Amino acid sequence: MKNTPSGRKSLLTLLFVFISGLVFCQPYVYVSPKPESRLINPRQAIALRTGLPIDKSSLDECQLRVVGSHSGFIEGKKRLASDGLTLIFESSEPYQKGECVQVSIGNGLKQHDGTAVAPFAFRFYVSPKDKVFVPETAIEDDFAERGKTMRAALPTAHLSGLKSISSTIPLPGDFPPLYITANNDPAPGNYFLFSSTQNANVSYYMMILDQSGTPVFYRKNANRGNDLKLQRNGYMTYFDFVTTKWTEMDSAYDFRRYYLAGNGYTADAHELVVNENSDYWLMIYDAQPVDMSQVVEGGNPNAIVIGLVVQHCDAAGDVLFQWRSWDHFDILDCDTTWVNLTAPYIDYVHGNAITLDEFNNPVISSRKYHEITKINGQTGDIIWRWGGSQNMFTMVNDDRWFSAQHSIRYQGNQVYTLFDNGFRLEPEYSRGLKYRIDEVTMTATRIQTFENDPPVFSWAMGHMQVLPNENVVLGWATNPDDFVLTEYHADGTKAFEIISADSSLVSYRAFKFSWENSIFEPETDSLNFGTVDIETGNQVEAIDIHNKSNEPLFITDAYFNDPAFSLVDELPISIPAGTILPVQIAFNPSENSAYVDTVYFARKSSTEMVAISVRLFGEGILTGISDHKATHEAVVFPNPILSGQYCTVKVSQGEQIQQIKLSDLAGRQVSSFKPTTPRQTECSILVSLSGYYVLHIESSKGVIMKPLLVY
Description:
mainly beta, Immunoglobulin-like, 9-stranded mixed sheet, elongated
């Protein structure tokens, strides 16, 4: 039947769900494949779950029979999954294409409490094709071409006066040209990026940048990849577009394992969520042949339609839960002003994110539905739909809504965040959004917005992450203004920002995590040289560096910003496996001033670098020049100091403290103090911050600067 005002049959109604009465009442809360479902993968395992633990010893007595309309009796093995709840049957051979498979479970199966599980029967239909080729452009659709047009029409970002991330550590010539446009007290942690580009002179790199934007890890990749991030199990993962596998690395950046889709599918690049015990969730783009002439007027009878499959697998890769858009979504509910349903290739869902609520229910983002969908993680039933044509919520404090969104994330207490691309809205611009969901009143209240001024429009991809201190990181992905990431304070002011000089550079997502490598580390994160006479100079101190690996470590490079600090030891420095070696640093001040720097020790090759850093403090003084200069001095104690303690500042005899200012390493004043009585030579101040700072002590004879380290 055509899609006409007099009668409409959707793809869901016509092809995929013909629920009929079964011989037995269903005793299972979860059945996969869904009874009467179609377009099933020939390698699909059968999975059943009652909701209670299964008695493993009853599997041998369980009468499970699988018969194909072409294959006849289908042999296979049944077993209990690692969760103790899910019965899995895997056929010895793939099902025949296009056949109907009848499944019956007779007597014998028992639950752990001894209760017998009632018999049950169902059937499903196998896809008429095993593998369907889909060109990448069918999924990228108009974004790639639109992106090229928009970028070509705009000039390269103005870089004059901006700090390059290569200003401290020289980077390879084909490294992405990234620049820092804001640095205003960002949260602790490291930025994670995986860059891709259309520029022939720039290569693919995964990278980790420290709080200042300096790389502490990079690796050149021959293949395009994306989504480098730290998972809940403590390991990093990323997707490789050539191998089409999610790859896991440890903190030494070594390969650990792959995360694969089950049931004969290939994983998609949009999302991988790994839990603490290494069970995982991922997405699959499932291309299937569909006669769209039976769905819409002018539809292609040989169309390839791309559905969405969501899987939850245990650490061994067994599929514990599977949800398919074929079984639950109506294709006509997508944005049909955007999705051409008469095209030869139709990407109608375009799932791009998974998050889990506190009950392990998956919440997914479907870009071309403009929808966030909450799914029952036990049954697969839809709990609610938010946004798009099937929206179930009243939006509060947001007349604009969201569109073509990415990166749905559950923050707890019914708070959700997402990256709103704003595609096809008027005007088009992107933002990070925080909402509170009320599942009783069915309201979605916008409680916070993060956006650029002037607005940035990211037409595809993007990410929003809330940090432990409530700062927010936005990964801008594809946009004409070359923004890579922005970190915002909770009040919406910018804490940190990176842009690119390569107008085609994209990082699918940008993250910030607390991170340390397991190869080598300094035994202390700072080194204070104290006060050093400018005339004599050459104060030498040592940093103990621990090689935590099982192999010899060769430090190939050491980098400083300030020439007052230098390496005494000759490079390369060799540290045997599992040992600690003192590395000597010299301090030669040239001015009567406080010195603050960071030294980076690196293990570097032509394609990879791993680095650690140590903060350096020192103070130069002039002695023996004149009585005036010799007595123009100040003492700060204790230093370092614990946050919340009092710090005492004392100046030379005959001077009076007028004011003390405390500034961060970027020169921004964070606090100031004035003596309570005139002509004071000593003053105690309460320090409630933490980090590295500089004291500006204004006395009757001038200004003295002193470094201050606060833990």
